[in-house]
Specification:
The chain is mainly α. It has three helices and no strands. The N and C termini lie far apart (31 Å). This is DUF5133 domain-containing protein.
Length: 75
């Protein structure tokens, strides 16, 4: 599996979160495409098929990640 450098992962996570905060999924076609591209890249880089799982996996690979970060159990 492709293992992205932690700096690259952090950058993609930040970009995805920024686009999500800006509601890019409801924005222009370009914004939607950028968000889809980043989600796809995160999935490939983490070996997952779902962007939420990819975000969790990426965060766990970043320096300073803790076991309790990003629980898979929904509240």
């Amino acid at each position: 599996m492709l293992m992205a450098h932690p700096v690259v992962l952090r950058n993609f996570v930040k970009q995805y979160e920024a686009l999500r905060l800006l509601h890019a999924e409801q924005g222009s076609p370009e914004a939607q495409q950028r968000m889809n591209d980043i989600a796809y890249t995160l999935c490939v880089a983490t070996g997952t098929r779902d962007v939420d799982a990819a975000l969790i996996a990426a965060r766990h690979r970043l320096p300073g990640a803790r076991v309790e970060d990003d629980s898979l159990i929904s509240a």
